[in-house]
Amino acid sequence: MLLKGKKIAFLGDSITEGVGVSDQANRYDRRIERECALSAVLTDAISGSRFAYQFKPSEWPRQDLCFAGRACNLPLDLDVIVVFGGTNDYGHGDAPFGSLEDKTVATFCGATRFMMELFHTRYEGKPIVFLTPARRLGGDTVASRRQNDPEGRPLLDYVDAIKTIAKDYGVYVIDLYRELGIDPSKEEDREAFAPDGLHFNDAGHGVIAEKLIAFFASI
To answer: How far apart are CA 36 and CA 215, in angstroms?
Structure first.
């Protein structure tokens, strides 16, 4: 797929917002905008935000503006939609994981299904791409701040739920957890790409941009 001249929306959290980069121009979405000569980019990224609706308000209300709600406000004239999130649903908040059949935006699985169904209906025939959560420091263990998650699911369960639900809607998924090649639990990877164990630096955003550009070139 040739991206030149396309209008793309990026829906994300703190990673897409650019936490960790030395200059906002080095974010993965802006790199793609420049390198692929996009006609327009709409980036809706909020630090701390999650796919699912939260029951208890956060101390910082802005992060409660969930992906599912913001998805409804995207313009209808988009050529491509890229969604990169889910790590905060794993890391904090009170929305349950839910079941793969859920349609309520009050669970992670339900919010994922809601967005995919919404995009599938509104943007029929247009590429919809979900990036799974990438590896993060401690992501293979139970997140200590998670509420309402008695099963203590690892991050990989969130990754695989996105991939499974996507099959029902023909949504593309890039499995960054398995395919990005960056593991912050390894000291050398953390120092090179994600110094705080979660947010990517300039080099890390460069890797994500390359992964996305190569993906679009393949479809």
So the answer is: 13
